Amino acid sequence: MYEEIDFKKIIAVSNRHVSRLPYLAQVERIVSFHPRAFLLREKDLPEGAYLELAGKVQEICDRNQVPLILHFYPEAAKQLGLPVVHLPLWKFAEAGEDGSLKTGVSVHSAEDVRRAEKLGAAYLTAGHIFATDCKKGLAPRGLSFLKEICEQTELPVYGIGGIRLDAEQIQTVLKQGAAGVCIMSQMMRM
């Protein structure tokens, strides 16, 4: 069913609220396809509960040799010995770059790209590219936006938002200069 999809171009993004299977079973299923990374993006969890969940997800990712990227909590990444964290731009600016973690940053404009680069971002996610229920009522920025972002930086850029587990759509995103894609809903429902 997924034979045509290059999972090494996908960062799987979590959302336990839309998981088809019990959450940890769904994580196990997702990482069995060996995506580029698994981004634990459970935005509603306080840091303690997030860290506890991250430890369980780390065991699954390690067993499947899939890198785990934590979201929003740099201290949790440090506690678990993980080298990468993903932050919104405002949080990255607030936290500062101390060199202990590679940081992925969400960007939504050319100005965001310049700021993220100046702060020392390791990679960027840019979006939302297509219409998505996660941003209901908010118009997508589209492929031309993604192309513009990719042309403005040497950093790897991953398109995010409304991207499906569809080889043709993924190729369309990659043709804009993206290093890969981030997929949440369809990964959590596969």
From TrEMBL:
GO terms for cellular component: cytoplasm. Pathway: Cofactor biosynthesis; thiamine diphosphate biosynthesis. Gene3D superfamilies: Aldolase class I. One of its GO terms (molecular function) is thiamine-phosphate diphosphorylase activity. Keywords: Thiamine biosynthesis. Residues 12-186 form the Thiamine phosphate synthase/TenI domain. CDD domains: TMP_TenI. One of its GO terms (biological process) is thiamine biosynthetic process. PANTHER family: THIAMINE-PHOSPHATE PYROPHOSPHORYLASE (PTHR20857), THIAMINE-PHOSPHATE SYNTHASE (PTHR20857:SF15). This is Thiamine phosphate synthase. It comes from Merdimonas faecis.
